[in-house]
Design goal:
heterodimer, A: alpha+beta, five-stranded antiparallel beta sheet, 38% helix, elongated, B: mainly alpha, 9 helices, 2 strands, 64% helix, 2% strand, globular
């Protein structure tokens, strides 16, 4: 058979593509449930971790998912008798999306814990936003100054945020990602402000 | 026996004298990108090994039937097929590492080692030697990745495989004398390290030095 005839080439391509597509489709469908479970487990682990719990804690038992009008979601957790509200935040970092969970106490003001994650920030620099050195700084910081929402600023220089209730130290070499975290919290939490302002002082119901 | 020792040579060549990274200067891009830590470097090395070995094996098995005019396209389909498969498996079984590797697994497709070996070796050799050649090139690439990952993680983060090696108490911020070398975490340092390895490698293999 002439291997360079058009008929042979077309037949060869068609068979090749169909075989490859079939094998890949089977592989993708077989692995899909495991992958989906990985993603779900990670999300739940992040939410639990932001509330200061173990990633393996019983998600369904501790966390209640709540949805506001307009589709905004947040999570409610009861930890040692205290109610925490967990706000999912998302934004864009240097190379791709960044996201996280900010847990605030019943006053919707004091941060009790945060978890950040990212798609592809620079390892060792921007990617350090997931590390405890960075996230640990958020504990006890406040989102509000009196009645007005200020968010959390990210400041340059070690110790620059000392004594400041609304700031943390940035990551050196990860300025753009650090600034993205600041913008992410400001932007996302702003969307919840109407609800938060309504419930801030009446949350002890 | 003769065939066996020839396969052995196919295997040993790419490890040193014909190393894809050090001598052929292929696959540099990903060698810089994924080696900031040891674990992703290792997983990347293993993935490339699997893809080079099986791409060579499949292309060699197909070599007699492949129409010459669409040869390159067929090679690309085979390589892309394997890379997607590896990506899916990583996402299912080592999810955290696959997140760190992000786009670089997909970019294995464009790794010059693959097309290079398929085109230069697999199309002209029988499946088993081709498999050995592919595997050896993957291993040759992998060794460099792991060495880079080892050095960069040790000096850049003070840890290995995510475990702390340099004691916390040595660090300046806890009253010690030591600080991580931030440059290690950046791709340029990986290039410098590759350069140093090439220097040492050529120093000890005089026949590799160009006139």
């Amino acid at each position: 058979m002439n291997k360079n005839s058009n008929g042979y080439i077309i037949l060869y391509s068609v068979v090749m593509v169909v075989v490859v597509a079939a094998v890949l489709a089977v592989a993708a469908m077989t692995l899909q449930p495991i992958q989906a479970e990985n993603v779900a487990r990670e999300t739940q682990g992040n939410i639990l971790a932001s509330a200061g719990l173990s990633r393996d804690a019983d998600y369904a038992k501790v966390i209640t998912e709540r949805e506001l009008e307009g589709g905004l979601k947040f999570y409610e957790a009861t930890v040692e008798g205290k109610t925490l509200y967990i706000i999912p935040v998302s934004g864009s970092g240097l190379w791709g999306p960044i996201w996280g969970y900010v847990a605030v106490e019943g006053d919707w003001d004091t941060i009790s814990g945060v978890v950040f994650d990212h798609k592809g920030e620079t390892p060792g620099l921007g990617a350090e936003i997931v590390g405890a050195n960075f996230t640990g700084q958020f504990v006890g910081k406040k989102l509000f100054e009196g009645d007005s929402f200020v968010g959390i600023s990210v400041l340059k220089g070690a110790g620059a945020s000392a004594g400041n209730d609304h700031a943390v130290d940035a990551i050196s070499g990860g300025t753009i990602t650090s600034k993205a975290v600041e913008a992410m919290i400001k932007d996302t939490v702003s969307e919840y402000l109407p609800y938060i302002k309504e419930h801030r002082y009446g949350s002890e119901e | 026996m003769a065939a066996k020792s020839k396969n052995w040579q196919y295997f040993l060549g790419p490890l040193s004298k014909d190393n894809p990274v050090l001598v052929q200067i292929l696959g540099i891009c990903s060698a810089l990108a994924v080696t900031a830590q040891l674990k992703p470097a290792f997983v990347m090395a293993a993935s490339v090994m699997v893809v080079t070995a099986f791409a060579n094996l499949i292309m060699s098995a197909l070599r007699k039937g492949v129409p010459g005019r669409i040869r390159i396209i067929v090679q690309l389909v085979v390589i892309a097929f394997l890379v997607i498969l590896v990506d899916q498996v990583l996402k299912a079984f080592v999810y955290d590492v696959s997140k760190q590797l992000s786009v670089y697994v997909g970019l294995i497709i464009t790794n010059c080692i693959l097309m290079g070996r398929v085109e230069a070796f697999a199309l002209g050799h029988r499946p088993w030697p081709s498999f050995v050649d592919g595997l050896a090139n993957g291993v040759g690439y992998g060794i460099i990745l792991v060495v880079l990952g080892f050095v960069r993680e040790l000096f850049g983060s003070g840890s290995l495989w995510g475990l702390r090696v340099i004691p916390e108490a040595w660090y300046v911020h806890s009253g010690g004398f030591y600080a991580n070398n931030g440059l290690m975490m950046l791709p340029p340092m990986a290039l410098i390290l590759v350069g140093l390895i090439i220097w040492v490698h050529r120093g000890s293999n005089k026949d590799l030095i160009e006139k």
